[in-house]
Amino acid sequence: MKKIMALGLVLMMVFGAVAIAEEPLYISVVSKGEQHAFWQAVRKGCEDAAEEYGVDMYYYGPPSESDIQLQVEALNVEMLKVPDAIVLAALSTESVMTQLEDCVAHGIPVIGFDSGVPNAPEGAIYATASTNNQNAAALAAEELIKLDGFTDALAAGTPEAPVVIACLSQDATSESITSRTTGFINKMYELASEYNTVSVEGHDLWAQPAEDAGVILRVEVSATTDITDVTNAATSLLNTDGLFALFCSNEGAVSGLLAATSGGADLGEDGPYSHLLVAGFDAGAPQKEAVRNGWFVGSVTQDPYRIGYLGVELAVKAANGEEVSDIDTGAKWYTAENIDDPDIAMLVYD
Question: Pfam families from the xrefs (predicted)?
Fold first, then answer.
């Protein structure tokens, strides 16, 4: 009798366990693209997070970042599956407003990633995993000032012969580029002020004039984002007396500078601008070549892998009812010495 009761207890435990076993969470990830190497790294991060957290995940990216309707259609299909959470980088927030409102109504958490979902309905976006562009650009200032002789040059600047450190930006309206300009200027101002009086000039948005400054931070913004205008802005900077270092705040600014310097060759040994210390932002084949050749001392890259990984991680937490908040996915500094390291190579896309 005891054996029968024991067997019954075991069966109840086994079948009870089967009855209450929960299906894995289902997470829908809808990105801005898939073919570009940046988004491939994002996808790898998403997949690794899904595997680690034991969730089912669907990933979609349209063929190009102009395919708004394809992204909307993919989101509609995923909504029909009633996912436990959605990870979204909207090509157009206006185009997915209805879907976002439905998510609010049905309690489906939406996590923004990369550029996120700006101007989404209140309560729709639980958190966003993205690059803090101010922090990322500040990294360039921190790395530049570490270079041999940099602080000595700052200290040697005089009002009659100031040291000029410039920031080249292709516009003053884009949130990401404006934030990078701010991040670089603010951090360089903080660091350089330890060695000399600093004046910020060139654009009203960032102007901090100072008398008798031995260091000038100059912000140069091109007339338009057209490559010709960016190149002209770069040429203007290159003709500035006392130009010592230059930060290009995005791939467009890098392209303009390279166009103004014979593809970068003029920055090389024996070139007319061989003395100039240049730092970039983003990647792309021309910028990677500039770093490899030593024409740039280094560049800042976003971390697309962590954008994807942390986006899914936040989605899992939100689906489980945990409180989540925005997170900075970080940035990396790459140089000719580390560009081929495995943890950097996957982040510096062509």
Answer: Peripla_BP_4
